[in-house]
Every structure is written in structure tokens, then in C-alpha cells.
Amino acid sequence: MSGTAVFNRLALIGMGLIGSSIARAARAQGAANSIVATARSAATRRRVAELGLADQIIESNAAAVEGADLVILCIPVGACGAVAADISSHLAPGAIVSDVGSVKGAVLRDMLPHIPNGVHFVPAHPVAGTEHSGPDAGFAELFVNRWCILTPPDDADSAAVERLSAFWRALGANVETMSAEHHDLVLAITSHVPHLIAYTIVGTADDLGTVTRSEVMKFSAGGFRDFTRIAASDPTMWRDVFLANKEAVLEMLGTFTEDLSKLTRAIRRGDGEALFEHFTRTRAIRRGIVEIGQDSAAPDFGRPHAHLAKPE
Ligand code: NAP
Known about the structure:
Helix content is 48%, strand content 12%. The protein has helices at residues 17-29, 42-51, 61-65, 80-87, 105-111, 158-170, 180-207, 213-218, 224-230, 235-244, 246-269, 272-291, and strands spanning 7-13, 32-38, 56-57, 70-73, 96-99, 120-121, 124-127, 147-150, 174-177. The structure holds NADP nicotinamide-adenine-dinucleotide phosphate (NAP). Residues 14-19, 39-41, 44, 74-77, 79, 83, 100-102, 125-126, 129, 133-134, 234, 237 line the site of NADP nicotinamide-adenine-dinucleotide phosphate. The site of NADP nicotinamide-adenine-dinucleotide phosphate has 26 residues, from helix 1 and strand 7.
């Protein structure tokens, strides 16, 4: 342990990529005195034990939250309401209940009715991840220099919000607070629609009759392979994201479709100026992302380059 504990007993429900990363980071930073973990399947609980990710591994959600001063649900968005109902009467007075779901409005709607008086509900979304799932996929550094967005309800206790912020800062994240509604709109364009586009284009390529699947794979370095990384993300998680953030995604998709039509028209009309202007603007956005440290400036995302064979 290296830091001062922000919480005494942390209960993690769900030990996939995000739950196991929180466990690793909280332990590395000493952000909680003890960590209790539970997962839906016996296989995951067994693996969490083998990896030594928690002080205690408990079978039921209800038993896991007993005595915890921080409870974090690290499960798909669509499962949060039922689990909140399951733990409701077992939560300790004064505890903070949070989650990590990629959609916040639906989580607030589904969980809030099950939060008893005297327990603080502060939903959260660490904007950090990979395309891998399960307890083996997690790592302690996942949240370093990434944003964690808190979406507390209007009447949330400010001390509880500050305490959860301190926890996420201890894990290396930067913390920002906004309404659940605004979060869902922002993430629709920065995450949800890009995932939908990746899922679409990879599916489209797979369906093509005139270009074979082996050609698609062989020549993927032309741009396609970067979409395939995103399109390899967990199907359950992303199904739930689109079901839960329907309105905001449809709104952003409407705008996206209009803009796609403009570019389609520019290509059809041979309007090079319009294309050049658009691509110049988007290049500046990429440079801005690199400048604020949200990605590497290394070419091709820092992929290692092969060496030329020595001439005979
Ligand atoms: P994951 O690696 O697939 O892990 C999901 C965990 O949830 C597993 O422990 C799984 O249990 C459990 N689970 C699944 N369905 C459940 C259900 N119906 N009831 C109870 N537990 C259930 O997923 P993840 O990537 O950690 O994602 C977890 C949450 O984090 C999601 O809400 C997602 O929106 C959010 N998030 C993900 C990312 C990302 O990039 N992946 C980033 C930020 C936030 P078993 O292992 O026993 O099946």
C-alpha cells in the first residue's frame, strides 16, 4: 500500500475488465483498507481468487455489500437495476453506492429507486477501457490520466461526491462532474456512435461478395484494422449501451447521417475543395487529442515497425 485509504471496505460487484482494474489499482494505491469481490459466475470468482485480486471473494451480492462503505457495480448497464434491488436492504448506513456503466441516465433511473435513505448514490463512468473482457484483462494503470465522469443526482450529498472523487483520483483518474443527461449526449458522439460505425463497417466488409474475407484481412492495414479493434468489444456491454442510450445515440446518428450525405455528395460531384476542407478540420481534432495527452503522437498508434531484411 502506498496511499492513505479513502474507504475502509470496498465491495466490487462484477470482476471483468473494469472491476478487476479497480481492484488492482485500489490495492496498488492503498485506496481501500480491504477489498471484497463478487461475480455472477463461479468461474469468474475462482479466477479472481487465483489472481489474488481481493481480500475476500463472496458468492452473493447481498453478502458482499454488508459493512462496505463503498460499493461499485462493475456489470453491464442492463443488469444494474436488478442488482441494486438485490443489495438494497443489505447496504450499510452512510455507504456510497456507485457504478461504472457507460450510460448514466438509464442507470440512474434503474438504480435510484432501490437506494435506501441514508445511503449515497453517486453514479460514475471511467472513460477508459480496452476491447478485452474478464478478470485477466484488467490492469492497475487503466485509469491513469483518463477521465472519470461522476453524475450525481441533484440532491446528492456533496461530501459523498468529493469522497468518491478522491477515490478515483487515487486510482490516477481526472474527475469531472456533469448531469447524467449531458453525459449520455457527450458519450453518444465520442464513444457510442463510433462503436456503432465500427460494428457496421466490419459487418459490411464481412458481407461483401466481390471482396473475399481473406482479402479484407490481408489488406486491413489500409485503415480497416483500427475499426476491427473497436468492433471486437464485448457484445453484451454494447448491446446494453445502445438499448440504454437510445435517444442520444439516435440524435447523434441523425447528425452523422446528414454529414455523411454531404461528404457523399462532395465525392459524387468531384468537389475536392469540400473534401480537403473537411479533412483539414478533422486532422486538427486529432492533433488536439494528442496535445492534451489523451493519445500518443507516435505514428500508427505506436505500433512497432518491422525491419527491412538485410540485403544479401
Ligand atoms: P466484462 O469484462 O465483460 O465484465 C462484466 C462483469 O459483469 C463480469 O464479472 C460478469 O460476471 C458480470 N455480469 C455480466 N452480466 C451480469 C448480470 N446480468 N448480473 C450480474 N453480473 C453480471 O465487462 P467490463 O468491460 O468490465 O464492463 C463492465 C461495465 O463497465 C459495463 O457497464 C460497461 O458499460 C462499463 N465500462 C466498460 C468499459 C470498457 O471499455 N470495457 C469502459 C468503461 C466502462 P461473469 O464474469 O461471472 O459472467
